[in-house]
Amino acid sequence: MVKSSLSTSLHIMTLLAMFPEKWISSKIMAESIHINSVLVRQELRKLKEAELIQSKEGKNGGVKLIKNASEILLADVFKAIKKDDHVFEIRSETPDKTCKVGKKINTKLNSLYQEIDNAILLKLEETTLETFKNSF
Prior knowledge:
The protein is mostly helical. 51% of the residues lie in helices and 6% in strands. It has one domain: Winged helix-like DNA-binding domain superfamily/Winged helix DNA-binding domain (Arc Repressor Mutant, subunit A). InterPro entries: Tscrpt_reg_Rrf2 (IPR000944), WH-like_DNA-bd_sf (IPR036388), WH_DNA-bd_sf (IPR036390).
């Protein structure tokens, strides 16, 4: 489930876009977002895995964008943090298979949630990180 992960990742990516030449630490990001730096590092791993950011260790280390903000769509960030999850979560408990609703609910919800995910993705494909950054 995406929950606040997209908000956190977009905050991180916008900070990086604001200062493209600087290596920004997870501590600075955490202070800006007002969350624990462990949560920031969790999102950074996803963004790095998606090849949206690069990192450098050490005293002068931190994180930077791999490419220009004008080449990154908000949809790229969404895909990086979403993976196989839906925006909404299907309950993990197995519904009653003898119930008319219970035996089909997860299939129906999965289909509905996929449509919602696709609609969000289409909307996010309209905006680059550069455009989003410039709105501040």
